[in-house]
Amino acid sequence: MDSMLIITVSLAFGLSFLFALGGVGAAVALVPVLHWLGVPFAAAKPTGLMVNTLSLSGASYTNIKHKRLDFRMGIPIIITSAIMAPLGAWCTRIIPKEVVMVVFVLFILFSGTMLLFFRSKKYEGNFRDDRPVAAPAAIGAAAGFLSGLLGVGGGGLISPLLIFMGFNPKRVAAITAFVVPFSSIIGFITYAAMGTVDWKILIFASLAAYVGGFLGTSFMQGRMKPGTVKKFLGVVLLGLAVKMIMGMF
């Protein structure tokens, strides 16, 4: 194993462990870090999508097993996100890289701000129990497109918007964990069909990220307060955004 691959695997493990402590996916940080290490952007993004798929599939299984998932609420989001994810991936062929990087910075800024200032506990009293279609479907479409375009998954967009609409955070968390693997795997398949996947990096980085995420989740459940960790991760993401902005000039 060459030194660059060792560094990549170590960072994939470390970032996934760290972000799992806050209960969030690491792809939003993993993709730009892989790119800075010299991995082509087009190869870093499918790696991020595969990490999303692996890390959230287990959570979805648990939610389904314990009957926490509202399928009727989740299906419209899945359908639109699954349709838009491959479109987002394909658009990387026609949208200039500079534009994609700007969108990435904006997404990281949004995600970092949400981690720093948004507290879902404030909305634990949300009790909305209807199942609208149009607004969640639109959210799913936007999240799916961004998932394919950036390789980061759309959970960071889906979750706060649904909570702002009045849905209970626990219900939203189950829906998000169910939706993101679908859009991520479809986006990944699109990148694979376009021939941009670096399979060596994908396999090693994805496995390392999966193990890191699993251990981070286990550690967090026993010893950590997710709210405190999320504030730290928010600062990390805002720092990444600043670095990306500086790299544009």
Compressed to H and E, one letter per element, the order equals HHHHHHHHHH
- Radius of gyration from CA coordinates: 17 Å
The helix-and-strand class reads mainly alpha
State the helicity in percent bands.
over 70%
| Main sheet specs | none
**Low-pLDDT runs:** none
Number of domains: 1
Shape, per Cα inertia axes: globular
What is the number of strand segments? 0
Distance linking N and C termini? 34 Å
- Roughly what is the average pLDDT, rounded to an integer? 85
Report on this structure:
The chain is an all-alpha fold and 249 residues long. The protein has one domain (3-247). The chain is 79% helix and 0% strand. Helix 2 runs antiparallel to helix 3. The longest helix has 26 residues, at 169-194. The radius of gyration is 17 Å and the shape is globular. The mean pLDDT is 85.
